[in-house]
Amino acid sequence: MDAPLQTARELFTEAVRAVLETWPVLQIAVDNGFGGVYSQQKADWMVDAVQQYFHQNANLEQCEVEDFLADVMNNEFDTVVDDGSLPQVSLQVCQLFTQCQQGKLSEVRGQISQLSQKKVTGRAKATPVKAPAEEEEESEEEEEGEEAMECEGGTERTSSTVPTTEQDPLPPSPPASREPEDDGWTVVRRKK
């Protein structure tokens, strides 16, 4: 391999690393261990995998790169990327690859520098914080859900070992009445 081609390939690998290190979805997956104890190693491997994917496949389309990145995130980090960032990341990597292939190495270095500054300014954090009002609403909803799930007369049981021919047939149930509740639920009760 001649020197300019090697430099372009190394620069592309560095560019992929810069793009992936500033991708919030991947940062969150690594920071929170979605890939297990080896999340950081998987992120490092992903840089090489993306770089190899480009060099082993000619004329990649953006949608192919999106699919590849989505598969890696799903398989390695158990993460489905649905924040809309996948097309942006794949487009950015495709553009950087094209620039490296065209010999526009100084432009690629400039973009890597910009991405590195973006990385330094702040990392995405996944720290869900609930406001006190949200916590109260959630606990009330859980209590209401538990109340709605309780069944009336749940203590009556029939033996499953009794043959069906010996069981008394159930009396026909009286028609039910429907009463709308204030919270939008319809309660169905037996008429007596």
Secondary-structure content class: mainly alpha
Beta-strand content bin: 5-15%
Distance between the termini: 90 Å
Number-wise, the strands total 2
Shape estimate: elongated
Q: Which stretches are low in confidence, meaning pLDDT under 50 for 5 or more residues running?
A: 152-166
Pfam families: WGG
Function: May be involved in 20S pre-rRNA processing.
InterPro entries: Pre-rRNA_process_TSR2
Family: Belongs to the TSR2 family.
Give the secondary structure arrangement, pairings included.
Layout: H1 3-21, H2 24-31, H3 39-56, H4 62-77, H5 86-101, H6 105-121, H7 132-149, E1 176-180, E2 186-190
Antiparallel strand pairs: 1-2
General description of the model:
The protein is mainly alpha-helical and 192 residues long. The chain has a domain at 3-121. It is 58% helix and 5% strand. It has helices at residues 3-21, 24-31, 39-56, 62-77, 86-101, 105-121, 132-149; strands at 176-180, 186-190. A two-stranded antiparallel sheet has the order 1-2. Strand 1 (176-180) and strand 2 form a beta hairpin. Helix 1 (3-21) packs antiparallel against helix 5 (86-101), helix 1 (3-21) packs parallel to helix 6 (105-121) and helix 4 packs across helix 5 (86-101). The longest helix has 19 residues, at 3-21. Residues 152-166 have low confidence and may be disordered.
